[in-house]
Q: What sequence folds into this?
């Protein structure tokens, strides 16, 4: 059975709640096998957006994937080439949704003339990016919200 390609479109401010829910599910369910429960709870404490903070996705190149009008993922990158957010819900992991989002955000960045990209990647993201020729710079340990995390600092250089 063929899986239909998701609809990819630019992020809109009205997408904020749906993006927060995708993030929550991607972390709490999709990453559950790779992190202790306390880290997952600190990383994604609520399925609701934090309305006290500005919506950073609105100021980045952000694209969302939809299936039948429901957001299934989103990727965002800032103007420096930092891949900031890359999340899909568990049901679409491995079906090409993340690849379609990645290709879209990278096409946008390359059209802006960027050739150097960086990311602080969690376990699953680092595997995904390694398959796309990203390289490990170093591992980093950092503390946020009382929890200590380890992330892969990665980069991609494209020949102009």
A:
């Amino acid at each position: 059975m063929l899986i239909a390609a998701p609809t990819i479109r630019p992020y809109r401010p009205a997408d904020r709640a749906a993006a927060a829910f995708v993030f929550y599910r991607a972390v709490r369910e999709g990453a559950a096998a790779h992190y202790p429960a306390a880290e997952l709870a600190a990383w994604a404490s609520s399925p609701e957006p934090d309305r006290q903070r500005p919506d950073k996705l609105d100021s980045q190149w952000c694209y969302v994937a939809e299936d039948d009008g429901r957001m299934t993922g989103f990727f965002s990158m800032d103007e420096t080439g930092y891949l900031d957010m890359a999340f899909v819900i568990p049901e679409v992991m491995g079906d090409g949704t993340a690849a379609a989002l990645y290709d879209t955000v990278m096409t946008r960045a390359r059209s802006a003339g960027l050739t150097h990209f960086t990311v602080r990647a969690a376990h699953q993201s680092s595997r995904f990016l390694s398959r796309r020729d990203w390289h490990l710079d170093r591992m980093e340990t950092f503390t946020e919200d009382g929890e200590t995390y380890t992330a892969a600092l990665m980069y991609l250089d494209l020949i102009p």
Q: What stands out?
A: The CA atoms of residues 141 and 150 lie 4 Å apart. The mean pLDDT is 91. The helical segments are 16-30, 37-43, 97-111, 123-130.
